[in-house]
Amino acid sequence: ITYGDCNNSQDLSYFDVLVIPEPQLRYNEDEIDAIINFVFDGGSLFLIGNHCGSDRNNNGLDSAVIFGEMDTAGHFGIEFETYDGCTNHNPPPECELCSWNDIRNTNFIADPQDPFIHGPHGEVEAIKFNEATNLIIHPENNPMVQGHAWRDEGSAPQGNVDVTLASSFFGEGRVVAIGDSAPADDGTGDEDDFLHDSWDYPSSENDILFMNISHWLTRPEVTPLPTR
What we know:
By secondary structure, this protein is of the alpha+beta class.
C-alpha cells in the first residue's frame, strides 16, 4: 500500500475510498503512513472489524489489534476495544468485556438527518450483528468523531463506550468504523466458507445501512455530520 507513488498502479492516489474488511496481516509503518495521509488529504476510509479472537490465520493478530497498531484512536478518535489474551481462536471469558454475540441493534442516534440511519437508500430500523467488538470513541483525540449506534442492553447511554457504529473526519477525509464484518456478508463468498448472509437478515436493514455508508464515503452532496 502506497500513497503518492506513481509507479504503483494500485497507489491510493488513484482511489476515492479504501475499505479494510477484517484485516489479518499487520501493516508496516510505511503502509500505515500511506493510509493516514490518504485520508488526511481527502480520501475516505471504511474500517470493518470483528470480535476478539477472530484470528483467521493463527498469526496471533485479529482486526481489533491491527487497527490498534494503526492508532485509529489517536488519528480518528475511534478505538476497536481489545483485551489482553483475546487474540486467539479460543478467547478467555474476559473477552466478553469487549465483544458480544448475536445482537439486533436499535439504539441509534436521535438525529433525523443522520446519513447512515436515515440515508438516501432508506431507513435503518435495526442492525443485525453476529459477533462484534465494541468501539470506543475519543473526542479528546478527534473532536469530529461521532457515534451513530450503541449496544442495546438495558438503557445503554449514548456515550463514548459500547459504540457499534462510528464516523469521523480527519483532515479533509472521512472515516466510518463498524465492529463486525457479518453485516456486510451478502452470502456470495467462497462456497467452502461459512457465510452469514446477514445482508438479508430478517428484521434488520444491514443492506440499507451499508449502502448509506458507501454513499456518504463517496463524498456526494449531502448534509455533513453534526459537529461537537
